[in-house]
TrEMBL record:
BP-aspect Gene Ontology terms: ubiquinone biosynthetic process
Membership in a protein family: Belongs to the protein kinase superfamily. ADCK protein kinase family.
Protein name (Swiss-Prot/TrEMBL): ABC1 atypical kinase-like domain-containing protein
InterPro entries membership: ABC1_dom, Kinase-like_dom_sf, UbiB, UbiB_kinase
């Protein structure tokens, strides 16, 4: 229920950050201005005593986030991949949130499995371990299948997690509603829509049957990708609260020292993480949207292992083309073309000045190209980008939230492996390859062929429709006082002609290719 009781939840959030000392640490790490820091402290201080205590053994921000619950942990996981935004020290502390949270008892996991699958764990597995990883929504156990002895990972939802998330999401909805009412300028950012999008993503994560399906689809799409391992799911051992998937042994991408000790080329691995993400987003329109270090491993032979498919992103073909053209514009420093694409896609209101927008984009792009990657401050860059979106009246595009968020996370992961990685240089061959295939004459012919296939489904109905309309026209000619309608006869006949022409042209061009 999104009622006033959520005020208490929001107050307690600020109070918890103040009580744990996280408020000061977070604001300083994100380079917030002294004036805003003072205002935040002033608002939070009177309610400090209402805050949750958290685990005193943890650093302040990690302590506050874990005390507040799973929805806050999700945001913390994103920040853990961005040392260039929150600083290397805080980023390192937040990595605790990826897979090292306190586990729940094994007995509870066994009970969930028995209830979900209809059999005890002893009947299903010859071996079932203590938790090997615990995150905000679920924890993972190592197991061996009874009979075959095959190694698997068994993911089990935390007891009561749906209720915990619902409580947090309701508070977020309440806050977003009041932000829109009290700060009209914020409406272009669509806070309520953003929370609704987050809500939808989380609801998908809470049904492991959906994750099982997405793991299978992702494995299918990436079967031919080199040096990528996607464990296969076991449908008969999975349900709403339980997911069983193949076990993959490797080193976590957050274990930099272990990666170096194994002799794995971190720079090459970082490039591969970024390249694979872009390939999946552009080529398939279906990508892993939670690619923090806790969901990635590297095998002893250097293969990248991807798992945890609870959050997956999809983008349609038109959006992929827009995204590719924007990336290509930055790579080529063609800021005018980037601006044109934004206007063509409707991302910027048509009444704004395209030349001014191109100039603002140049101010974003040029410092990136003129500076060594490790010296770029993403915090300052994102702050300037926010100013640009506000100045040109750009609204938040909810269909792009997962893509943009994942791009930020993936770049952070790649740069944690290679601080000198240049995202644009790595992205260039992937984007150029996509554009060659999907933007241009061949893509236009392919689109025409697809259109003709859709239209061809209606061809069997067109003769009868055309005949009926011709008879209607003849009746009108004989009885002119009879209402003629809206001229649908002409429309149908024109549609017949256009369909036949389009189909014939598409078939001819497809044959020529």
């Amino acid at each position: 229920m999104r009622g006033p009781h959520n005020i208490w939840r929001l107050i307690r959030t600020g109070a918890t950050f103040e009580r744990t000392g996280a408020m000061t640490v977070a604001l300083e790490a994100m380079e917030v201005s002294p004036r805003l820091r003072f205002a935040a402290r002033l608002l939070g201080w009177p309610f400090k005593w209402l805050g949750l205590k958290g685990d005193p053994s943890l650093p302040p921000v990690t302590r506050a986030i874990t005390a507040l619950g799973p929805a806050y942990i999700k945001f913390g996981q994103i920040l853990s991949t961005r040392p260039d935004i929150v600083g290397p020290e805080l980023s390192e502390q937040l990595k605790y949130l990826q897979d090292k949270l306190p586990p729940f008892p094994v007995a509870a996991a066994r009970a969930t499995i028995a209830a979900e699958l209809g059999e005890d764990t002893d009947a299903l597995f010859s071996e079932f371990s203590e938790p090997v990883a615990a995150a905000s929504i679920a924890q993972v156990h190592y197991a061996r299948l009874k009979g075959t002895g095959e190694e698997v990972a068994v993911k089990v939802l935390r007891p009561g997690i749906e209720r915990a998330f619902r409580r947090d999401i309701d508070a977020f909805y309440y806050a977003a509603t009041w932000i829109e009412r009290l700060a009209p300028f914020s409406r272009r950012l669509r806070p309520t829509d953003v929370v609704a999008h987050f809500d939808g993503v989380v609801q998908g994560e809470l049904d492991l049957r959906l994750e099982c399906a997405e793991a299978a689809e992702f494995a299918e799409n990436t079967a031919k990708d080199e040096k990528l391992v996607v464990p296969r799911p076991w449908w008969d051992l999975s349900g709403r609260a339980v997911l069983t998937i193949g076990w993959a042994e490797g080193i976590g991408l957050n274990e930099i020292a272990a990666i170096d000790a194994a002799g794995i080329d971190r720079a090459e691995l970082g490039r591969r993480v970024l390249t694979l993400f872009l390939s999946h987003a552009l080529r398939d329109g279906f990508f892993h949207a939670d690619m923090h270090q806790g969901n990635l491993k590297v095998a002893p032979n250097g293969d990248l292992i991807v798992y945890d498919f609870g959050i997956m992103g999809r983008i349609d073909e038109y959006t992929r083309r827009v995204y590719a053209e924007i990336l290509m514009g930055f790579i080529r420093k063609d800021y005018r073309r980037i601006a044109e694409v934004h206007f063509e896609a409707g991302y910027v209101p048509a009444d704004r000045d395209i030349d001014e927008f191109a100039r603002a984009l140049r101010a974003v792009g040029e410092p990136i190209f003129g500076m060594e990657a490790s010296r770029i401050s993403m915090a300052r860059l994102l702050a300037y980008l926010f100013e640009v979106t506000e100045r040109f009246g750009m609204e938040t595009r909810t269909e792009l939230i997962l893509l943009q968020r994942t791009m930020v996370v993936v770049e952070g992961v790649a740069r944690s492996l290679d601080p000198h990685l240049n995202m644009w240089e790595v992205a260039r061959p992937v984007v150029e390859g996509y554009i060659r295939t999907n933007i241009g004459p061949k893509a236009m012919l392919r689109d025409l062929w697809r259109t003709s296939r859709v239209l061809s489904r209606f061809l069997p109905k067109l003769p009868a429709l055309a005949e009926a309309q011709l008879q209607s026209l003849e009746q009108h000619r004989q009885h002119p006082r009879q209402p003629r309608g809206f001229g649908w006869g002409a429309v149908v006949l024109l549609s017949c002609a256009m369909t036949a022409t389009t189909l014939g042209l598409a078939l001819l061009l497809a044959h020529m290719l």
